[in-house]
Specification:
By secondary structure, the chain is an alpha/beta fold. The chain has helices at 38-49, 68-83, 98-106, 145-160, 179-183, 189-201, 220-227, 237-248, 258-267; strands spanning 9-14, 52-56, 91-96, 114-118, 136-140, 165-169. The chain folds into two domains: 9-171 and 253-267, Alpha/Beta hydrolase fold, catalytic domain (Rossmann fold, 3-Layer(aba) Sandwich); 179-248. It is built from nine helices and six strands.
């Protein structure tokens, strides 16, 4: 949580499976356990710069659940907002993957002025959508064709309920010698260029720099160990993994659309 003074709105962020609230925050003396993954932290930094008070909560298990945990988190959000004396401000939410399903569910109970579901279609086939359901923005990666089909279907469902909906499509990105150093604190330009050269040498990227497979399905860590054992420090493996997943654009947290997402929130504040 951060930046409650002079805030114009409250933003709740819900992580995906196998992630935690600490992924959104840079490590500091106030948060020694924080991780600050590149896309997650940039979402927070962009929100703070636009005067959003940001609240993150970790799920109990690997992924979010929709029974008792849903009620507990709703109570935590309400308690925190009141404790910070922010009850008169608009409340918005963004959830990624499992967090997107979770946000779609709690939005039926809490009074959000708008929400964003990232790489998630929501639970709209498992819930009765209330008449005052908040405006909903879908941020997704069309390469995941099944999810895109469900989003198209659910957008029609929400429109039939007079809910304002929109979508942002996130496309694949080419790697470059500075791609990783530009996006990950702690990765220098020299290491970034060496990794790019290694990925090309191993055939992980095509002639234009695009990932041939999802980062999770690419044995890039093995290639680093075989070629340059000291090329990448252990704490940077997860950040690099996130950026390779983002470049392939199938299913990953992304901060590249932060401005459009925050403008969506701002456009629905009353």
């Amino acid at each position: 949580m951060a930046n409650t003074r002079f805030a114009k709105a409250v933003l709740f962020l819900a992580h995906g499976c196998s992630c935690r609230a600490v992924n959104f925050w840079d490590k500091s003396h106030k948060c020694p356990e924080c991780v600050g993954l590149p896309e997650d932290r940039l979402l927070v930094l962009h929100a703070l710069a636009r005067k959003f008070a940001v609240l993150t909560i970790s799920s109990v298990g690997e992924c979010w659940t929709f029974g008792k945990e849903r009620l507990i988190v709703e109570d935590i959000i309400t308690w925190w907002v009141n404790r910070q004396k922010l009850g008169k401000l608009p409340l918005v939410a963004l959830g990624a993957s499992s967090g997107g399903y979770f946000v779609s569910a709690i939005a039926n109970d809490l009074k959000f002025s708008s929400i964003t579901l990232m790489i998630a279609e929501g639970l709209f086939d498992r819930m009765d959508i209330k008449e005052d359901y908040p405006p909903t923005l879908f941020v997704h990666m069309p390469k995941d064709t099944h999810r895109q089909q469900k989003i198209t279907e659910f957008m029609q469902v929400l429109r039939s309920k007079r809910v304002h909906v929109a979508e942002i499509k996130c496309m694949e990105l080419p790697l470059s010698p500075t791609f990783l150093s530009d996006r990950i604190p702690g990765v220098g330009q020299t290491v970034s260029a060496m990794l790019f050269d290694l990925f090309r040498e191993k055939g992980f990227v095509d002639k234009n720099g695009y990932m041939k497979r999802d980062g999770r399905a690419t044995r890039w860590e093995d290639a680093i160990q075989d070629s340059k054992p000291n090329l990448l420090e252990n704490h940077l493996v997860h950040p690099v993994q996130e950026e390779l997943n983002l470049a392939f654009a199938y299913h990953e947290m992304t901060s590249l659309q932060s401005e459009d997402i925050l403008k969506w929130f701002e456009s629905h504040m009353t």
